[in-house]
Amino acid sequence: MGDYILLAISCILVNNILLAQYLGNCPFLGTSKKMETAVGMAMAVVFVGVMAGVITWLVNKYLLVNFGIEFLRTITFILVIAALVQFVEMFLKKSIPGLYAGLGIFLPLITTNCAVMGLCLININEEYSFLESLLTSFAFAVGFGLALILFAGVREKILLARVPKPLQDTSIALVTAGILALTFFAFKGMA
Amino acid sequence: MVEAILVMLGLGAAAGAILGAASKVFYVYEDPRIAKVESCLAGANCGGCGFAGCSAAAVAVVAGQAPPNVCIVAGAEAAANVAAVMGMEVGAAEPLRSYNTCRGGERAPEKYDYIGLDSCRAVSMLFGGKRECEIGCLGYGDCVKACQFDAIHLGPDGFPVVDETKCVGCGACERACPKGILKVQTMSDRLLHFNRQDDRIAPCTQTCPAQIDIPRYIHQIKSGDYAGAVTTIRERNPLLLSCGRVCPHPCEDYCRRAIEDEAVSINQLKRFAADWEMNSGARLPVTCAPDTGKKVAIVGAGPAGLSCAFFLRRLGHSVTIYEMMPKLGGMIRYGIPEYRLPKEVLQWEIDGILKMGIDAHTNVRLGRDFELGSLVAAGFDAIFLGIGAWRDYDLGVEGENLKGVYTGISFLTQFAKKQQGDAPTEEPIPIGKHCVVVGGGNTAIDCVRTLRRLGVNDVSILYRRTRKEMPANMVEIEAAEHEGVNFHFLAAPTRCIGDENGRVKQIEFLKMELGEPDASGRRRPVPVEGSETIMEADMVISAIGQGPDVSFVKDGKRLSDLKITRWSTIDALDPETLQTNIPYVFAAGDAYTGASLVVEAIGGGRRAARSIHLYLSGKEVTAPEKSLYKEHIPESIFESVEGVTKKARTPMPELPVEERIKSFIESDLVISEKDALYEAGRCLNCCRTCYDRDLVV
Questions:
Q1: Which chain A positions have a beta carbon within 8 Å of B41's beta carbon?
Q2: CB within 8 A of B336, min separation 6: which ones?
Q3: I need a labelling partner for B378 at 20 to 30 A (CA). Which of A53, B230, B296, B388 fits?
Q4: Which of residues B185, B207, B240 is at a domain's end?
Q5: In B378-431, at which residue ranges do the beta strands (DSSP E only) sit?
Q6: Which ranges constitute the DSSP H helices of B170-326?
Q7: Which residue of A has its CA nearest to B22?
Q8: Does residue B169 sit in the same domain as residue B127?
Q9: Whether residue B413 is found in the same domain as residue B543
Q10: What element of type H or E holds B71?
Q11: pLDDT digit string (tens) for B561-593?
Q12: What is the extent of the structural domain holding B412?
């Protein structure tokens, strides 16, 4: 049990997928201008990340390893994740329209999100068990959400600050992201 | 290798099959138009329209929550395609445009100095900003930053300037502005706006019964944008040519310059702009909202009716006018003489209003030819009563019914009808040699000046108070004096004396003196005992006031339900909604207020148009919130004004007396362009508390 908690903390904070691994940069900058969109994106990533982590683990174990075609992993995962997102979208629209409306535009946007793809690949590379994969997928996605929401809060404050012209907008966002990443770097000491 | 290819193909096929099956299993009925609409949109998912992505926007369009031109990226062609899918006209919803209501900017005195802050939102939380003005622009440009379309920049005066051609009406600036200065509105919203307590408006605009944005149009004249000035005036007043000539300009009484200097000649500038349009030979386009399919009947084509018809038409309703006289215009055609408002000018103005697509029927009278029931049966959704005040008050003295005794309005009306050839069969009114007009209002002055022009040398006015108390416009009184009218003040007629043929030959009056002030604040005239005086008079016109002729009420079935006040005006539930006790009937103008100003009727017409629009849209007809109605914002009324140097007011050009009393040609002339620019330069361009100081030269 202790191992699982450690694994979760490691995925959320120490190896935060956004700030330590620097995956999922586009939604990190694109949807962090407003807290509202950041929360929507974070929810969608948690949802899709967990689904994708589990399905890709199964696909890897029972399809790729079985047939000895691990070299097709990346392209297979792209296909699987894209189909999965489409499927989930249709399912939600029919069965849970409330959640579908809440996730809105962010659900299809994640089809090409490298954070989701990244966490699937990390699961395989680290040779996690099924349960571990489930946990890490969830934890990575929560870490993504945490970083995104923190960052959105910071960016809303930056709007009120006087920023020199050459650094305005995306530049200052990248600088801030770097500083935020440095603060997360402090968690390395925990591991 | 073969294995790999097979696995990939299998995986693809499996995914496709599952998705295919899922699309059947999880099928949700969706309006097919949503997909069609979505295919017309840009597909950029930019969110500029305010919806979460293009598909959400498409859903909103189909649900009727967004106009066909919702997509701000795709442009006009896409809007047309969307409209085609939806079976609508492109313009089915009016375009929204951002509109800045603050003109204070850097002129507002500063209160605080903030260091290191660069955001309106931040400073508004820190004691409300650096300027004294609590409602004005903060000047840090949050709106500029919020605009994704580069349509707003901070102007040189320190407040945002909106480029209407770039503005797409997305509303980002409105959401960004903590002071609510930038408003994203349709033209209809602007037309229906009434002065509010928290508006950024100058004292003159607060005073104007039609609520014209006076500083804005004067500023436009000053910068040479005469067309812009006409458009600004026309957002509040469709009868600018007429008002520019006859308005007694109550606005000028509150002109801030008048505190230290003479008031700006606001009305002459209005006339200048209006005449510029008429003389330019082309009418400026007047935009109307898309048709709503609702029909409104306007009864009475006076200033109130024309104003109401104009605004309702601009709001997209279908309007039909019913008028009892042979021509449109009401009291401004039949009550105001030719030399003050030439009929040709009035006709040009009325033609412009009719050209917007308004039908008019003349020679039909409420209660005689039609009534409320027949209008409802004809498919009208609402009715506006602007029947004016055409019934003269009786003098109430002996000998009133003698031959040669007339009442003011009937004299002016009959004369006007004859003059413009409306009544070729009627006998002209016999004009006397010694004419006496009783009364001190504009009608009395119109009568005497008309009589002078008819060649009568002995024309007198009898008024029971003094010149100071006369309700007529001062310029009119002065003009009458110049034209050689005899004024007898403090004189009240007691009887008309007739000859053996029943014709009036003399009038007897009592001398008066002023006593205590009465309810109107004017000192009450008290008769002096034994001061009876007899004066030669072979023609007497009594013009002591007029009220609406509401005799139609007893003629109709539904009409008899209409509530009439004890002053025989039409009663409305609320002076700001002008809705009568019959919900679909609205009233304004003299019929509601009793005899009053043209500009008051025009304002009332627009107010009624707002209520009718609310009524037709199925909304509750209520007075506007925080309405500033017949009052002033205390902080905008100054005791003294700093930084004003005296500059003479442009005098009104008029024809010399000898020339003008020979005929009915217009006696007041329009000021020259040079004078107009000078006069516009005298305007302090006031806002609520800010104003431009004169440069010390």
A1: none
A2: B246, B446
A3: B388
A4: B185
A5: 382-385, 391-392, 405-407
A6: 172-176, 187-191, 203-207, 214-222, 226-234, 240-246, 266-279, 303-314
A7: A87
A8: yes
A9: yes
A10: none
A11: 888 888 888 888 888 999 999 899 999 999 998
A12: 394-547
Number of domains observed in the structure of chain B: 4
pTM equals 0.74
pLDDT digits 0-9 by tens, A38-69:
888 888 889 889 999 999 999 999 988 888 88
Residue B586's beta-bridge partner residues?
Answer: B384, B579
The Cα–Cα gap between B287 and B257 comes to 34
Whether the CB-CB separation of B346 and B241 falls below 8 Å is answered with yes
Six token digits for residue B455: 């060649």
Model pLDDT for residues B308-340, shown as the tens digit of each residue: 999 999 998 999 999 999 999 999 999 999 989
Is A63 near chain B, with CB under 8 Å?
A: yes
Q: How remote is the C-alpha of B502 from its chain's centroid?
A: 47
Task: Provide the token pair at A36.
Answer: 């509202």
How far, CA to CA in Å, does A24 sit from each of A27, A50, A118, B171?
A: 6, 16, 8, 31
Element containing residue B527 per DSSP (H, E): strand B523-527
Does residue B662 lie in a domain region? no
The whole-angstrom separation of Cα B240 and Cα B244 is: 6
Residues of B with Cβ-Cβ distance to A95 under 8 angstroms: 26
Whichever domain contains B528, its CATH number is: 3.50.50.60
- Whether the per-residue pLDDT at B296 is higher than 60: the answer is yes
Q: How far is A83 from chain B (nearest CA, A)?
A: 6
A14: number of Cβ within 10 Å: 18
The residues that bridge with B117 in the sheet, in sequence order, are: none
Residue type, A130: F
What are the distances in angstroms from CA A117 to CA A8, A58, B15, B71? Answer: 18, 15, 18, 33
- Is the pLDDT at B346 greater than 90? The verdict is yes
Site from A105, A107, A112, A155 to mutate, B interface, most B CB atoms within 10 angstroms: A105
CA diameter of chain A: 59
Cβ neighbours of A165 in B, within 8 Å: none
ipTM score above 0.85: no
pLDDT digits (tens, 9 = 90+) for B77-87: 777 777 777 76
CA B318, CA B295: separation in Å to the nearest integer?
5
Residues 6+ apart with CB under 8 A from B332: B239, B242, B246, B302, B303, B341, B346, B598
Q: Tell me the angle at which helices B303-314 and B598-616 cross, rounded to the nearest 10 degrees.
A: 40
Per-residue pLDDT, B147: 85
- B-chain residues near A63 (CB < 8 A): 7, 11
Q: Please count the residues of chain A.
A: 191
How far apart CA B480 and CA B340 sit, in angstroms, is 12
